[in-house]
Design goal:
Strands 1-2-3-4-7-8 form a six-stranded mixed β-sheet. Strands 9-10-11-12-13-14 form a six-stranded mixed β-sheet. The protein is globular and about 55 Å long. It is 22% helix and 30% strand. By secondary structure, it is of the alpha/beta class. It has one domain: Ribonuclease Z/Hydroxyacylglutathione hydrolase-like (Metallo-beta-lactamase, Chain A, 4-Layer Sandwich).
């Protein structure tokens, strides 16, 4: 097995929205904001080669949206999905499976792109099965008012019409025995958090349950969560398992840190060590 970190670029979101009820005087010490209260966040994905499978976990937001739309999110940094995949030594046509933790645009937008004449959309990974959870798919197709703006029709409809949509809950062991799935309902309905068994080390892609090192403390939840109290419960259970099983916590949105080792202290959970994935495996 080989694991590569894929950089799909940076974008900006409101700091207050990313930390909910936590005051700016606290969170800005960990994640600084600009003059418009915007903080930089990474769109970080994982590429896992395991025998005859090449599995991409999440895809960032892609670049097919109009420039005006892109400007709302202040895209910056050197990261780009396809370039990063090729820099890792692969081609997008080799990807066999795309596992989407959830269908918010910053996680699934890169799964779909323009065709060569830019008059229709196509799958970015033409030979891949696209995986999500069936109940999450239903919630995206019939979204609540809170999430409606983040489930983009061009993403969902293109995946649906491709015939390559698959549901992890409708298949036994869909990605092989090196993958385990945990589901979370706090951020959105049935978000997938895969655990990868790499040699003797487990790595969890916690998606937006714990998007950065600054969100490890249980009450630090995003305003984007549809059920913030449930997010807190899910974080507590997840962090407890991470500590007990010595699982590496992978961050999808932390600009600096890719992973952390977690410990429990008298003040709660905290990062014992932070760094790049290759430093830990």
């Amino acid at each position: 097995m080989k694991i590569s970190v894929i950089d799909a670029g940076n974008f900006k979101l409101d700091g207050g929205a990313m930390f909910g009820v936590v005051p700016k005087t606290i969170w800005q010490k960990m994640v600084p904001a600009d003059d418009n209260n915007l903080c930089s966040w990474k769109m970080r994905c994982l590429l896992v080669e395991d025998n005859n499978r090449l599995v991409l976990i999440d895809t960032g937001m892609g670049d097919k949206q109009a420039q005006k739309w892109q400007n709302f999110y202040f895209r910056h940094g050197d990261g780009e999905l396809i370039k990063s995949i090729r820099d890792a030594g692969y081609h997008e046509s080799e990807v066999t499976d795309v596992l989407l933790s959830h269908l918010h645009f910053d996680h699934c937008g890169g799964a779909v792109c323009w065709n060569s004449t830019k008059d229709a959309f196509r799958l970015t990974f033409p030979n891949a099965k696209y995986w999500t959870h069936s109940l999450h798919w239903e919630s995206a197709m019939q979204p609540n008012q809170r999430e409606k703006a983040t489930f983009l029709t061009e993403n969902l409809q293109t995946i649906l019409e491709s015939g390559q949509l698959n549901f992890v809950d409708h298949s036994q062991n869909p990605l092989g025995d090196k993958f385990e799935f945990i589901y979370a309902d706090g951020h959105t309905e049935k978000m997938i958090m895969p655990i990868i068994n790499y040699n003797h080390q487990k790595i969890i892609f916690a998606a937006d349950t714990i998007p950065s090192f600054a969100h490890i403390h249980v009450p630090y939840c995003m305003s984007y969560d549809v059920r913030p109290l449930q997010t807190m419960e899910e974080k507590s259970l997840l962090l407890d398992r991470i500590v007990k099983e010595n699982i590496l916590l992978f961050f999808d949105h932390d600009v600096v840190n890719e992973v952390a080792e977690i410990e429990i202290t008298d003040r709660g959970y905290k990062a014992k060590n932070l760094g790049k994935l290759y430093e830990f495996i």
